[in-house]
Amino acid sequence: MLVTWKYRPRNTFVQRLDPRTRLIFMVCIIFALTIPEIWDYRIVLPLFFVSLTLYLLARIEWKDVRRAWLYISILVFFIVGLNGLLSGRGGPSSVTNLPSPVLFEVPFVIPGTDWGWMVPVTVSKLWFALNQMTRMITMAILAIPIPYTMDPNIYGTAFRRMGASDKVSFTMDLAFRFLPTFARDLTITMDAQRARGYEMDKLKGGIAGRIRRLAPLIIPVVMQSTVTGEEVIDAMDLRAFGTSQRTWLKELHYAPRDYMLLGLGAAIFITCCVLKWGFGIGGFFVPDFFTQFVVR
Amino acid sequence: MNESKNTWEFGTRQVVYGAIGAALYGVFSWATNIFPLPAAGNVTFRPAVAVLIFFGVAYGPWVGLLAGFIGNTLGDALSGWGFYWNWSLGNGLMGMVPGLVMAAISNFKERADIMKAVGWGTLGIAVGMLFASLTEMFVGGIDFNTALVGYFVPAFVGNLVVVAILLPVLMIAFAAVAARRGR
């Protein structure tokens, strides 16, 4: 039995949009931030508010996304944020190359030795970490509502209508459908192994030992999926999949609101490219007010 | 000639296993995206890479490419990372290259075939991660040293360790399942 995404029909602006519009707009924002390498808060912040507006218009209940947000918060604040704060890496080289006032130093000691070094946290790294987190959340909040607000039955149609071949579209469609099923299988397998005494939180040994001990979780899910695959192939072959061009049951049509959002997405992308490559605006820099605020 | 045709075939089997590989890679990546590699930028420790290489080896290059590209995109999207086309394509290459050895593997239990799979898997990791790390110079604005030392080396070593340990286990388990199934 296939488990579906946590999709529920809601009469919202976001759900009335054509799925292609939402995917293309998301790609526009991601490309606008990543291809011209935009790190300027004057551009990043407005894009963040555009994404936030669309997220809020999706009107997803907090109880539905609570866990997703907890996970994303840990990832963004404690992993990406701390990584940016301490290393300054993952972005432009000017974060670490340009001189910047040191706020404080974090001592690192290799366990079991006296060896260590001090990692300076600079104003530049702090600003970069804030920027990096805002950029990631801007992109993430466009992707988060998709499983909750986009009908899983139209993923394949959307990709087909965006120009992908029947086979590639069907691969996408199936992958989206299988994802929650395998997530459920993984959870069931974890519970079953725990019931047999498997302690996932207390994996002991070196790296090799720990990886080897992941096998009881990975192998059953993967092997079961290969068996499922044969059944799906038989079902598709019986329906003569791939013998001729496929027809898709769902029809998609753009409405004026879709053209508006697509125009906005294209305008954002083009503006970011022109600003960065045409006028040199959009690169990483630390604004004076921030330096004055943190260095007193 | 026949071997080459089988390797590059893209039919129902490849569509289904491409989707399954992508979903599995997405789920396992999502489950482990929380573990960053030491010294790496935004590169995480992914036991799921063994699953991706396995799908490439077992079902061919198209399956590896689709599983890597779509799976990485799904895993990143689920984790809230957004979409990084160069890392998704790098992951696709990482699954595609080992797929080239599919036709040369006849017995998933044989030591020689397992060694072949691990060898091609290593090549796939090198090609895929090198592509993603070097393109990060243009996408993320990092310098060559950071791309090589900060991204490629930890990603390559981490994935290699995972593949060397888990791929043989997956292959032996698959041999047993395939024998029971009769195809």
Structural description of this entry:
The complex is a heterodimer of chains A (296) and B (183). Chain A is mainly alpha-helical and 296 residues long. Chain A is built from 13 helices and two strands. Chain A has one domain (13-294). Chain A has helices at 13-16, 19-34, 41-57, 62-87, 94-97, 123-143, 146-149, 155-161, 166-195, 207-212, 215-238, 256-279, 288-294; strands at residues 102-109, 116-122. In chain A, helix 2 (19-34) runs parallel beside helix 12. In chain A, 34% of the residues are buried. The mean pLDDT of chain A is 86. Chain B has one domain (2-181): Arp2/3 complex 21 kDa subunit ARPC3 (Orthogonal Bundle), CATH 1.10.1760. In chain B, 77% of the residues lie in helices and 0% in strands. Chain B has helices at 2-7, 12-32, 48-59, 61-79, 85-99, 111-139, 144-181. In chain B, helix 2 packs antiparallel against helix 3 and helix 6 packs antiparallel against helix 7 (144-181).
What's the helical proportion of residues of chain A?
55-70%
What is the rounded distance between the termini of chain B? 23 Å
The overall average pLDDT of chain A, rounded, is 86
Stretches of chain A where pLDDT falls below 50 for ≥5 residues? none
Rg of chain B, rounded, reads 16 Å
User: What is the topology, as strand order, of the major beta sheet of chain A?
Assistant: 1-2
DSSP strand content of chain B: under 5%
Strand percent estimate of chain A? 5-15%
Quickly describe the structure.
The complex is a heterodimer of chains A (296) and B (183). With 296 residues, chain A is mainly alpha-helical.
List the helices and strands and how they pair.
The complex is a heterodimer of chains A (296) and B (183).
Chain A: H1 13-16, H2 19-34, H3 41-57, H4 62-87, H5 94-97, E1 102-109, E2 116-122, H6 123-143, H7 146-149, H8 155-161, H9 166-195, H10 207-212, H11 215-238, H12 256-279, H13 288-294
Antiparallel strand pairs in A: 1-2
Chain B: H1 2-7, H2 12-32, H3 48-59, H4 61-79, H5 85-99, H6 111-139, H7 144-181
